[in-house]
Amino acid sequence: MNTSFDRTLSDEDVLRRRATLLQRLHIDGPLLLLLLLLAAGSLFVLYSASGKNLGLLVKQASSFGLGMLAMLVIAQLEARFIARWVPLAYVLGVILLAVVEVMGHNAMGATRWINIPGVIRFQPSEFMKIIMPATIAWYLARNNLPPGLKHTVVSLALIGVPFVLILRQPDLGTSLLILASGAFVLFVAGLPWLWIGGAVAAVVPVAVGMWYFVLHQYQKQRVLTFLDPESDPLGTGWNIIQSKAAIGSGGVFGKGWLLGTQSHLDFLPESHTDFIIAVLAEEFGLVGVCLLLLVYLLLLARGLVITVQAQTLFGKLWAGGLTMTFFVYVFVNIGMVSGLLPVVGVPLPFISYGGTSLVTLLSGFGVLMSIHTHRKWIAQV
Amino acid sequence: MPEPIRLKDHEKDARLVRARAVVGAVVILLLSLVLMVRLYYLQVIQYEHHSTLAENNRIHVQPIPPNRGLIFDRNGVILADNRPSFSLTVTRERAGDWQKVLDTIVSVLELGPEERALFEKRVRQGRRPFEPVPVLFELSEEQIARIAVNQFLLPGVEVAAQLVRHYPQGEHFAHSVGYVGRINERELKKLDPVDYSGTHHIGKTGVELFYEDLLHGQVGYEEVETNARGRVLRVLKHTDPVPGKDLTLSLDLNLQKAAEAALGDRRGAVIAIDPASGGVLAMVSQPSFNPNLFVTGISVKDYAALRDSVDRPLYNRVLRGIYPPGSTIKPMVALAGLDSGVVERSTRVFDPGFYQLPNVKHKYRNWNRGGDGWVNMELAIARSNDTYFYSLAHRMGIDRLHRYLSHFGIGQRVSLDMFEEAAGLMPSREWKRVSRRQAWYPGETLITGIGQGFMLATPLQLAQATALLANKGKWHRPRLLMKADGMTPEQLMASGLLEARPAPPDIQLKDPHNWDLINFDMQQVVHGARGTAHKVGATARYRIAGKSGTAQVVAIRQGEKYDRNKLQERHRDHALFVAFAPAENPQIAVAVMVENGESGSGVAAPVAKQVMDAWLLDENGRMKVQFAAAVPQEVSREH
Fold it and tell me: Across the interface, do A249 and B28 touch by the CB < 8 Å criterion?
């Protein structure tokens, strides 16, 4: 023990000396590289999707900058330090969601924002996307794995409160993401397969219940339209028909940058936000979309490696939950735009226009970096 | 004993998380594969479908209607042209406060509040803010000028021009050239939807209808790129329309006017044909109407006035009017008698004022109750002796009469390009058996021989039969079209641009000299001392071959006398006269029908002569050079 301890100390010194700038800044090189790649790609596609709107591009670029800053700040915080504040953050988050419920700012028929004019325009549900998996990870890490019935029930209750609050805003996409981010932590923590199977089996009655008691008419309409888009070709079905036409007409190599007719002639709705993948698919074809998927998969792979290598159980669970939630973003967005899934408002990570989602996502990657770079040197031997 | 503290087994936890991460990775890979398969399906397998969808989204084809071909008379005088008509349009998007703009329009054009309300209604009906909505049609010159002067007050307001059919000759050619009108539902079903995609008007009657295919032309296209709201962003491709072909008709404006003047304000029909070609020189159906009323949409009141008028101005008497041809067919019957050998030139018939069939009491009366005594063919035609023709018809029999007169076009549609022509009726045994379920009686043959009874003919058929006499049996279908695109109707038919309508076979006589004999007898009608139309002949500057006739409107009972004073004006006989001239070298064949005119020789013949004068004589009353040269100086008056 002693010898190894001595050697470790000296190794630590050596490593400290060898530490690169990235390591000193607690930045994970592969993640940073992939994120910068996505940022560049995003601006490229956005320029076309927004109809060469430079103002929009500048806004998106500054959102990237802001997000990167948030990422760097979070990366500096040690995960174990964060862990102490997680319960408080969770309670604060739930309170804010409740405040939104009572007096939130109303935009486009949905109450999602807390607006303090001149100070901040804040969407508590975005904050919950990071805190939700952290909360479950914090809770489960205190006990032995795999979680027993009691811990599972408590975890589900912790997930359920913000889920219902966000669903009532109403924001189906975000509430499902919150639900997924908590559930993935349970999954990574080794929730018994039998229970997972049971939960999947319970989806049908729960879905029926939600259909009658929870979902809003427009949400029901979206599901119905998904099942048969041609039934309402000029209404809700229009989006899906047009986005499929955009994707399909791109072919293997695409029509070329700035040459997509569907988006440039306004046939594609929300072409620079949720439906931006259709622009990319139209202009860069199958090849373009597969390249993007590849970058996503590399990010996910790195996330899973960080999960496995994390030193603390809290870190493992949080990292695992964040990584898998990130995949849900990708899958749901591409799935809905290509007509595989119903239309729920989920942006395509790093590509869709929107500052809030960028900051949230980059904060998540900041967490991953923190978990990875704050491992004790001892663990690396 | 304190309970043993359950230590966290880090190694076990790590293994568990690692296992779950591996499962997660596999699921992520599988789901990513699902996405890729989906994209492959959309972008490779369904590529054609979706690129077609996207193209259809983007490209819209806008038709450019072709300009309708113009119509000229034989001298190049325009009979139908296209006149720009101006309408006022408002584009909401560019007008800004369009309510204010409408107020300005109303005040600039000094219109009333009703128009203001109408404008607002029309603007509101415009579905897209960037599309110009027409609010006021058929602007006058002054209105256009006022708009132009105040243009700065009227953002988004434009004067738009479109071409509308116009008939500068008004009433003169309403029955021959016809008119165009808005395409109706029924026509829409029959039309080529592509070629007519930008066209609003179509030929409704006359030449406009018959030559619709030639006049219309081919639609042009503009392929435009539009956005999701249908706004045109740019023109991708432009295909010019092919304008319709210009038509030159054989009609002559001056002759038409002369014929109308000759008819005066009587109701009736005049048709003049060039026997050498079949070209119609004049076609008068009086009274007429103004075809321009129909182009932009005739008002209910105007239409009711035309439709309900007792004079029936919309009725084309030349083509649709069917009358008993009366004595005008006697030259043809005589010719048939000669050719079939039933009579000789010298055969004589005694006329006591009537004719009786053997063993039948009924007396078939001559119009001249006193009788003309011994009558030969020359006198029978000149005097229009009924008795002679009763006798001739009796000897001929209905079958031969039917065959010969059918060759002359009686009972058939004879024209080449007049769509609404009535067929008339040339009765036969077969016809009577089928339509009346009765046998043919010999007495019916007699009255057929003088153009009465069942027989019905249009003025056009009479003119054509006369032209055949002038032309020695050579058939040309009467036609209005002279040239289209440098082609005659025959050439158009040969090249498939027109449905072929071959002429019936020419009439071949066993002895062609008989043509000249009948020609001579018809000259005696006009120029002979006892000819029925000798009054006309007295002033003629050239020799006319003619034949008068009357068409009964009301049957006169046996033994009753035709008393004009007893008959209402509209029940009096129609007066008929057919003629061609100059007799030696016919240049024009004319048929005249004066409704309720009573006397063919007295009323119709002078009309015919005036028409022929107008065609053959110059302003000094001398034969026009080209005709004079064609007429032999010494006129043979043998036989």
Answer: no
The active-site residue, picked from B250, B327, B548, B599, is B327
Secondary element (H or E) of residue A174: helix A172-188
Residue A353 DSSP code: S
Question: Is residue B495 flagged as an active site residue?
Answer: no
Average pLDDT over residues A127-156: 89
Strand partners, B83: B164
d(CA A163, CA A131): 13
In the predicted model, is pLDDT for residue B325 greater than 70? yes
Query: What is the C-alpha separation between B356 and B52, in angstroms, rounded?
Result: 86
What span, in angstroms and rounded, lies between the C-alpha atoms of A171 and A344?
9
pLDDT of residue B331: 93
Each residue of B559-584: pLDDT tens digit? 556 666 656 777 788 899 999 989 99
Asked if residues A312 and A79 have their Cβ atoms less than 8 Å apart, the reply is yes
A372 vs A84: CA distance, rounded Å: 18
pLDDT given for residue A381 in this prediction: 38
Residues 6+ apart with CB under 8 A from B262: B270, B606, B607, B610, B611, B614
Task: Give the separation between CA A267 and CA A278, rounded to whole angstroms.
Answer: 11
Instruction: Determine contact: B9 vs chain A, CB below 8 A.
Output: yes
pLDDT of residue B638: 43
For residues A364 and A357, give the distance between their C-alpha atoms in angstroms, rounded to a whole number: 11
Of B519, B278, B247, B502, nearest in space to B381 by CA: B519
pLDDT digits (tens, 9 = 90+) for A252-270: 998 888 888 887 777 777 7
One-letter identity of residue B203: G
At residue B57's C-alpha, the angle toward residues B56 and B62, to 5°, is 70
Cis check: omega of the bond before B582, within 30 degrees of 0: yes
How large is the average pLDDT for residues B390-400? 91
- Inspect the interface and report whether the beta carbons of B24 and A267 lie closer than 8 Å: no
* Structural contact between residues A241 and A336, judged by C-beta atoms closer than 8 angstroms: no
> What backbone torsions phi and psi does residue B329 show, to the nearest 5 degrees?
-90, -5
Q: What is the DSSP string of B83-148?
A: EEEEEEEE-HHHHSSHHHHHHHHHHHTT--HHHHHHHHHHHHH--STTS-EEEE-S--HHHHHHHH
Q: What gap in Å lies between CA B217 and CA B116, rounded to an integer?
A: 38
Q: What is the distance, to the nearest Å, from the Cα of residue A62 to the centroid of all Cα atoms in its chain?
A: 19
Region B256-260: mean pLDDT is: 94
Could you tell me what percentage of chain A is helix, strand and coil, using 3-state DSSP and rounding each to the nearest 5? 75, 5, 25
Give the CA count within 13 Å in the CB-facing half-sphere of A13.
5
The amino acid sitting at B59 is I
User: What pLDDT is attached to residue A212?
Assistant: 80
Q: What is the pLDDT of residue A103?
A: 67
> CA A328 from chain center: how many Å?
7
Percent over 70 (pLDDT), chain A: 84
Can you tell me the distance from the alpha carbon of B38 to that of B236, in angstroms, rounded to the nearest whole number?
A: 33
Residue type, B128: R
Distance CA B69, CA B80 (A): 9
Average pLDDT, chain B: 87
Which pLDDT score is estimated for B486? 87
Q: Which residues of A touch B32 (CB under 8 A)?
A: 293, 296-297, 331
**For tokens 């065609």, what's the residue?**
B615
Residue from A143, A145, A280 whose CB has the most chain B CBs within 10 Å, to mutate: A145
Quick count: other Cβ atoms within 10 Å of Cβ A270?
18
Find all residues with CB under 8 Å of A39, minimum gap 6, and list them: A64, A350
Q: What is the pLDDT of residues A146-199, one digit of tens each?
A: 888 888 899 999 999 999 888 887 777 888 899 999 999 999 998 888 888 888
